[in-house]
Amino acid sequence: MERTTPRMDTKNMTVRITTALVFGVFFFSLLWFGDRPWAPWTYLAVMALAILMGVREMTLMARVRGFNPSLAAGTLVGWGILAHFFLATGGQDPLPLWLVFTVGALVIHFGALFFDPKLEEALPSQAITWLGALYLGFGLGFQQKLFMLQDTLPRTGSRLILALFIITWFGDSAAYFVGTFFGRHKLAPRVSPKKSWEGALGNLGGNLLGAFLMQATVCPKWTWVDVVALGLLLGLAGQLGDLVESTWKRSAGVKDSNAGGVSIPGHGGVLDRVDSLVFAAPVLFAYVHFVHGFN
């Protein structure tokens, strides 16, 4: 049987690239000024906005299935986790996580008693509220933590965030092209029929290429062991994050995480863009903490 030659949606690809360039210019400009006093606050504002939009998309997906998680409560708890990472520096912890979780429990559970009109769905609704807050609060909170790290090199945190983005994005791009032209064996057909094992291997190849590029340019202290380890670890974590978010979309029966709401041109929703980063950021922090001693 003759196999149809894969065709790429060039119009959508043009929109994706244009949007990516706009975001790239913004983030790279911010990272370049990472040592300025206002930079951590600016990055905090960006992460807070991403948490709000991400929790909103979690809420929209859940409402497709008839559940009623709280956008306000989920966002507030996510912001509390983000604030913990922002404030916990130099051995100080003025907003410990136990306090965030205690107040968060009061907001989520007691708030539902007064403001949730669908209490018959209280269990899944409140569970999804917690999921959105923890998923985005920790995933983006670790990005904030990475951004604020300091070492002998100037803009150490900015360099690590840039490495996180480049390694992850190189993998995503490689997976798309390799999967489109060479994908034969389905990776997880129940979750995402277009993903293939060939694309997954291409993803890891792109991750390794991104890690080598970062070592040669902005992270000169990395050894070859660091390059290979971070390329593989971030690649595996990023692909797991992508599959997890795809599972949620599949369960809600939606194509994009925005579920009909505001989308990023050519990219779907915010969760579609940060799903890999949310899983990869804690892995990168764990590596530089346990291997290189960053706190």
UniProtKB/TrEMBL annotation:
Species, as recorded: Geothrix edaphica
Segments spanning the bilayer are 12-32, 38-55, 67-89, 95-115, 127-148, 160-179, 200-218, 224-244
Q: This protein's superkingdom?
A: Bacteria
> Which pathway features in its UniProt record?
Lipid metabolism; Phospholipid metabolism; CDP-diacylglycerol biosynthesis; CDP-diacylglycerol from sn-glycerol 3-phosphate: step 3/3
The name of this protein is: Phosphatidate cytidylyltransferase
- Keywords on this record? Cell membrane, Lipid biosynthesis, Lipid metabolism, Membrane, Nucleotidyltransferase, Phospholipid biosynthesis, Phospholipid metabolism, Transferase, Transmembrane, Transmembrane helix
Membrane topology per the entry is: Multi-pass membrane protein
Entry similarity comment: Belongs to the CDS family.
E.C. numbers: 2.7.7.41
- What is this organism's lineage? Bacteria, Pseudomonadati, Acidobacteriota, Holophagae, Holophagales
